[in-house]
Amino acid sequence: MSHRSDTLPVPSGQRRGRVPRDHSIYTQLLEITLHLQQAMTEHFVQLTSRQGLSLEERRHTEAICEHEALLSRLICRMINLLQSGATSGLELQVPLPSEDSRGDVRYGQRAQLSGQPDPVPQLSDCEAAFVSHDLSNRGIDISVFYQSSFQDYNAYQKDKYHKDKNTLGFINLGTSENKLCMDLMTERLQESDMNCTEDTLLQYPDWRGQPFLREEVARFLTYYCRAPTRLDPENVVVLNGCCSVFSALAMVLCDPGEAFLVPAPFYGGFAFSSRLYAKVELIPVHLESEVTVTNTHPFQLTVDKLEEALLEARLEGKKVRGLVLINPQNPLGDIYSPESLMKYLEFAKRYNLHVIIDEIYMLSVFDESITFHSVLSMKSLPDSNRTHVIWGTSKDFGISGFRFGALYTHNKEVASAVSAFGYLHSISGITQHKLCQLLQNTEWIDKVYVPTNCYRLREAHKYITAELKALEIPFHNRSSGLYVWINLKKYLDPCTFEEEWLLYCRFLDNKLLLSRGKTYMCKEPGWFRLIFADELPRLKLDEWNMRRFCDVLQEQKEALIVKQLEDAMRE
Amino acid sequence: MFTLPQKDFRAPTTCLGPACMQDLGSSHGEDLEGECSRKLDQKLPELRGVGDPAMISSDTSYLSSRGRMIKWFWDSAEEGYRTYHMDEYDEDKNPSGIINLGTSENKLCFDLLSWRLSQSDMQRVEPSLLQYADWRGHLFLREEVAKFLSFYCKSPVPLRPENVVVLNGGASLFSALATVLCEAGEAFLIPTPYYGAITQHVCLYGNIRLAYVYLDSEVTGLDTCPFQLTVEKLEMALREAHSEGVKVKGLILISPQNPLGDVYSPEELQEYLVFAKRHRLHVIVDEVYMLSVFEKSVGYRSVLSLERLPDPQRTHVMWATSKDFGMSGLRFGTLYTENQDVATAVASLCRYHGLSGLVQYQMAQLLRDRDWINQVYLPENHARLKAAHTYVSEELRALGIPFLSRGAGFFIWVDLRKYLPKGTFEEEMLLWRRFLDNKVLLSFGKAFECKEPGWFRFVFSDQAHRLCLGMQRVRQVLAGKSQVAEDPRPSQSQEPSDQRR
């Protein structure tokens, strides 16, 4: 029962009136149940702390403990039920985990102290309500971490916006999915070459991936990454998604507690993947938005910063095993030049670090004037045995539901060790066939898919950036990926992560899902990632996305003014 | 007692400084032959020592210590299977290739399945299937799974979709359950002989061990049949684990059993479940062969058919299409548990064990088609399994070889003890090699942690012509008249593959 804490912040009911739909009954019930849980816990603590040492007393205590277990399980279940009722109206939120302090209570305290309407009542300890005595500690950790990270996403899954059926549903500008070319993909996947049910596809596969698919991946990467020599299918391992590849790599390259360096802000999924199974720490190499003498452009990654972060980590006694690079970068959309890339790789070689390069957005560079250079295009790698490349179809082909990710590594040991995870991250033979057909059709990709996709991305990007300019919102203007990295600092007062989180919640209240900088380990509060790769009609014609977005910012602005007035009057 | 690492992954590695790493790195581009010859020298480490980083040779300088152990799993477990793949039997192209009677796959019904999967209702493509979805599995599929299991497991009450989690196969499920139910180093009890790959599934990510409940072939005392599982044996194994300081968190039961081909009666099941409840153990019941009971007289009962489970919150059932629908390459498995905490925790890991939306759609269509399953697939599948089973068991009887098999699963548990002069596992391995040299791949008892040397698993669910040829080769070996010369060639003296079902 170690996960249960004594203090249980009671949610404030202040914002009941502001809820889009009436779920207040759940909130009230939930409040009562949480009170009950607290009271019960205290009661049992008193009961059991009075224990003596005699056999009878101990037996008595044991009986009490059993009762307690039963009651707390029942209450947990009640809370979970209420939670699911309440979250559909998003009255209750478990805070997203910040790396340093999960379930940070400060937000709630602050909101209560300041007398502000707390946009989302804090239930840091209702995290504990998710868990039971049936799980191991790591099971609890996994469950809580997942719940707190994906609760908003799950709420969205249950209540999606639809232009006719559910106009009040969630609009998702947070999940990096490319929905612009669903028509092309749907059509392509329905063609007759996609369907194959041969015996061999129904039998146990080669766990590294079917040979035909690995050959195709090698050919595809040779061509699209402009590799100087043909890539070898034996260096390819195919798993069900890039996060699986990353997780497997973290397992085989690090022991628990060891670490990777990652320039921050970076894709939050890595933090997730390294923690759930592998227990590997990600050490951020903090980048700054400000342009200075050494920082010639915003969020610039330099070798100095890498070295500094590495030395600092070593001083703290951490064992750093590698460097993770994302190129094109997520969430910045930056592309590394071959020269910078080479410097980073040389830095890694100098310190015997592995380099994991995630190039999952490599075909989503939509400005023709910019050339993406894959690490596989280099004539010679400084340390090819420690350079591991990840690519998948989720982003570039907009089929995240396919579950496909590939590893390319020259290191046979790493490839073998990752292959052992083939059992646990395998892809259906039928799917492998479809993927092979998809990647094989270079003509369709070159003449139809990529040009259309890039055109649509460009248009959507143009639209969203024009809107942002009109709103005078600064953003990091890049031409790759499915997202814009925007700066909402001016809506935060004071400029803290708490305020960032509160703004995030305000978006949620208005059924708008965005990703906030903290989950990318961004050092400066106020940054958000906005996904624009949604169908233009949804983005534009309905004007729902942007209208809601503007409404929230307007609301925030007004709240800021009110707050400033209050502060002034208090003085 | 344990197959698994006795030490924590964190155990210090044989020290590898940066300089030493580079040295080793340069020797890396060795050719295949070098690789093979090294394998030869590298004896199968005594399983007990697997987790000892020193055991896992230090020639791998790029990996972490757990990475080295993981690689060892891959190298050793896959070797035999790779030998088979390099020389696979093909009626026309490679008639002298290896016949695989080792891997538990049902190859009898691909015609039926191929036909069903290519029907037009299977080819649906729509955006929602191509995008991120509920990690527990699409709701439409979970609903179908719940209905399917309610019907085929004869559940007294309808099963609920919220208790279903869908993943890419049973292996992933073992891994996820091990991770969320146990801390590293804790254990599950498992009666032996058992499907050996579970060892790897629960170890790779979960880093947990299996505590064996050894069963004997001899019928003594209270036993009424060979390899009988009793509560006394469970209790004893549990006590033994405790005395060694190992914390046991659960019990794994496979029913129908692999490799025994046996089923537990409802009374037996009830006893085991009550035992587990008494010790607050989780029970994972693997029912992956539940529809592959081809003898009507075998009264198979799913644990989900019991009127009342002793401890429903700690009873977790798994099923998959690999065996019952003969599609091990499809990668579809499912968990049924009433425990929402467990379901949620497993679902939290599903990000890493997801399967394509299109396949999820196809699975839902398949499971929904009760008419085809009941009227076409199951009767035909059972008839073919029975015919193949009859053939192999007749052959064995003619050879005077004792065996166990009651009409469930794809395999017969064969007693070849009389062919081992000294009755050791070394001799068992030698016999296995002689089979492989004579181009027939079998699984030997040690891979199932069988206590007695000399047991082999014969998989019979293959096409008649391959089965006949396979049995012919078996006969040759047992008669001491192998066609292939006795001297073992390097490429064939590799380790067996029983890491797949």
Give a structural overview:
The complex is a heterodimer of chains A (571) and B (501). Chain A is α/β, with parallel strands linked by helices and 571 residues long. Chain A has helices at residues 24-49, 55-87, 106-114, 126-129, 137-158, 182-189, 199-202, 211-224, 242-253, 269-278, 303-315, 338-350, 412-419, 429-440, 442-470, 497-509, 536-541, 544-570, and strands at 171-172, 236-239, 259-264, 281-286, 320-326, 354-358, 387-392, 405-409, 475-476, 483-487, 512-513, 515-516, 527-531. Chain A is built from 18 helices and 13 strands. A seven-stranded mixed β-sheet of chain A has the order 2-8-7-6-5-3-4, sandwiched between helices. The model of chain A is unreliable at 1-23 and 87-131 (pLDDT under 50). In chain B, the strands form three sheets. A seven-stranded mixed β-sheet of chain B has the order 2-8-7-6-5-3-4, sandwiched between helices. In chain B, strands 9-10-13-12 form a four-stranded antiparallel β-sheet. Chain B starts with 17 loop residues before the first helix and ends in a 23-residue tail after the last helix. Chains A and B meet through α2, α5, α6, α7 and α9 of A and α1, α3, α4, α5 and α7 of B.
- State mean pLDDT of chain B (0 to 100 scale): 85
Please give the CATH architecture of the largest domain in chain B.
3-Layer(aba) Sandwich
CATH topology of the largest domain in chain B: Aspartate Aminotransferase, domain 2
Order of helices and strands of chain B: HHHEHHHEHEHEHEHEEHEHHHEEHEEEH
Largest sheet of chain B: 7 strands, mixed
Oligomer: heterodimer
Estimated structural class of chain B: alpha/beta
Portion of residues in beta strands of chain A equals 5-15%
Mean pLDDT of chain A: 83
Main features:
heterodimer, A: alpha/beta, Aspartate Aminotransferase, domain 1, Aspartate Aminotransferase, domain 2, 46% helix, disordered N terminus, B: 501 residues, alpha/beta, seven-stranded mixed β-sheet, four-stranded antiparallel β-sheet, 16 helices, 11% strand, globular, disordered C terminus
